[in-house]
């Protein structure tokens, strides 16, 4: 997962694993908010066990301590933190959000430490090409990240990591660089990266037209860079250990072939996964704590249904008293390089063209912030979330609450930025334009 823009690579250095680096950087960049008296993070039962005053180094040392019993106790305590976290709409939402983001990063490092320590304690040396034990999408990524050392990127409301995409590369002739198999691997890897960059991770049919290595090498570099900028973490391929990839030599060949391209690949167990008895406890405990962590994030599917039901009751409302409440923002995003504004479909009604113009002005104001401003990345991410929903001029009414929450985040973030008044000024016309064009949005203020 990313930590405020730190790319999630796959090489561990002196600072520890990628996940550890992400945690440390997030704690350091948000030290004032996280370690102030009364903050949800520092008041949690887990952090309260540390000597005061609590420091970034102390949190990191605790998260990386390899004692298995200590890991289990800390995982249990952090689960309680998520379960007792105030709801998103409660007062002090900003404190809640920062605490949630820090705690989720902490959970990933604790999980990594637990997995590595437990495997070592049971004298279990997992091979890189060995399938992870579970078919659960999230847990498969957590286990693989602990074993292979890559980062994970999350967004509130989505349980599966954003930077992991399923792929179905060809296995035939992979060991022969001059044969068609490598070309098909190139094609499937590029197709997966393109889906990931566009935010579409739905599985598709295996690529059938081969692509040469020189073209692949340049193309995947550009896609990887774009994904890293967008999500804050390197793209990762997840391959089902089925059919030909049920064979160990085929899995190993694929990993070895993709390794020079810095494209981490792991294998998810098939239907008949053999799980060691001691590993069943690991899976059960990790499942429990991650369920607690994501129970407090945005349930967009539920909100979509609620909003659709509400829309059946008729229109009404006004934006004269437009207010912004504390949101649940993205847990991790990047500075999305995609162009936004001036691209709502040309044949959309004029009222949506007004939305287009107001959003373009808003993004221009955000982009004008210096790159050194730490909030810029999150502001752009919140903007892109809004733009993604409305860019067609035909948004899903169930997304109205989500868009309002993103606008809340933009206002809150802009108010925390020096010279952020221009962004706040551009928010009002954007909200007004949305309300005029989108009945489902204006109903939120009825």
Look at the structure and give the mean pLDDT: 78
Query: How large is the share of residues in beta strands?
Result: under 5%
> What's the structural domain tally?
3
Strand order of the largest sheet: 1-2-3
Count of DSSP E strands? Answer: 3
* Rg from alpha-carbon coordinates: 23 Å
Contiguous runs where pLDDT drops below 50 for at least 5 residues = 1-14, 298-347
* Fraction in helix: 40-55%
What would you say this structure looks like, in words?
By secondary structure, the chain is mostly helical. The chain has three domains: 1-124 and 276-297, no CATH class; 126-136 and 152-272, no CATH class; 300-445, no CATH class. The protein is 53% helix and 3% strand. The protein is built from 17 helices and three strands. The protein has helices spanning 18-29, 31-34, 40-43, 56-64, 68-84, 93-121, 137-148, 180-198, 213-231, 248-258, 277-295, 300-311, 350-367, 376-390, 400-415, 421-437, 439-442; strands spanning 164-167, 236-240, 265-268. The chain has a three-stranded parallel sheet, sandwiched between helices. Helix 1 runs antiparallel to helix 6 (93-121).
Brief digest:
This protein has 446 residues and is an all-alpha fold. It has helices at 18-29, 31-34, 40-43, 56-64, 68-84, 93-121, 137-148, 180-198, 213-231, 248-258, 277-295, 300-311, 350-367, 376-390, 400-415, 421-437, 439-442, and strands spanning 164-167, 236-240, 265-268.
Write the layout of secondary structure elements.
Elements: H1 18-29, H2 31-34, H3 40-43, H4 56-64, H5 68-84, H6 93-121, H7 137-148, E1 164-167, H8 180-198, H9 213-231, E2 236-240, H10 248-258, E3 265-268, H11 277-295, H12 300-311, H13 350-367, H14 376-390, H15 400-415, H16 421-437, H17 439-442
Parallel strand pairs: 1-2, 2-3
């Amino acid at each position: 997962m990313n930590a405020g823009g730190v790319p999630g690579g796959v090489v561990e250095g002196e600072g520890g694993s990628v996940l550890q680096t992400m945690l440390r950087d997030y704690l350091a960049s948000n030290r004032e908010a996280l370690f102030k008296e009364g903050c949800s993070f520092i008041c949690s039962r887990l952090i309260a066990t540390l000597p005061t005053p609590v420091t970034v180094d102390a949190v990191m040392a605790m998260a990386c301590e390899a004692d298995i019993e200590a890991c289990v106790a800390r995982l249990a305590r952090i689960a309680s933190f998520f379960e007792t976290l105030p709801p998103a709409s409660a007062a002090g939402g900003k404190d809640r959000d920062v605490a949630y983001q820090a705690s989720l990063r902490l959970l990933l490092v604790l999980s990594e430490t637990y997995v590595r320590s437990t495997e070592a304690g049971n004298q279990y040396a997992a091979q890189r090409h060995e399938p992870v034990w579970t078919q659960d999408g999230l847990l498969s990524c957590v286990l693989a990240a602990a074993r292979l050392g890559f980062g994970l990127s999350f967004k509130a409301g989505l349980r599966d990591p954003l930077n992991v995409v399923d792929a179905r590369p060809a296995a035939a002739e992979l060991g022969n660089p001059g044969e068609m198999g490598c070309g098909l691997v190139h094609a499937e890897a590029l197709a997966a990266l393109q889906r990931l960059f566009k935010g579409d991770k739905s599985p598709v049919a295996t690529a059938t037209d081969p692509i040469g290595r020189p073209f692949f090498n340049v193309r995947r570099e550009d896609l990887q860079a774009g994904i890293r900028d967008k999500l804050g973490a390197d793209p990762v391929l997840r391959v089902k250990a089925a059919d030909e990839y049920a064979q160990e030599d085929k899995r190993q060949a694929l990993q070895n072939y993709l390794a020079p391209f810095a494209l981490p690949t792991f294998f998810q167990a098939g239907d008949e996964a053999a799980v060691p008895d001691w590993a069943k406890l690991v899976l059960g405990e990790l499942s429990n704590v991650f369920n607690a962590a994501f129970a407090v994030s945005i349930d967009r599917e539920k909100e979509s249904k609620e909003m659709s039901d509400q829309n059946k009751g008729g229109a009404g409302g006004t934006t004269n008293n437009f207010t912004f409440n504390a949101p649940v923002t993205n847990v991790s995003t990047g500075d999305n390089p995609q162009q936004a504004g001036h691209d709502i479909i040309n044949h959309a009604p004029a009222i949506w063209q007004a939305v287009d113009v107001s959003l373009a002005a808003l993004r221009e104001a955000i982009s004008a912030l210096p790159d050194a401003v730490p909030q810029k990345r999150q502001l752009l991410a919140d903007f892109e979330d809004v733009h993604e929903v409305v860019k067609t001029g035909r948004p899903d009414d169930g997304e109205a609450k989500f868009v309002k929450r993103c606008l809340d985040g933009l206002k809150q973030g802009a108010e925390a930025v020096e010279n952020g008044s221009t962004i706040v000024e551009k928010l009002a016309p954007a909200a007004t334009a949305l309300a005029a064009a989108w009945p489902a949005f204006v109903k939120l203020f009825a």
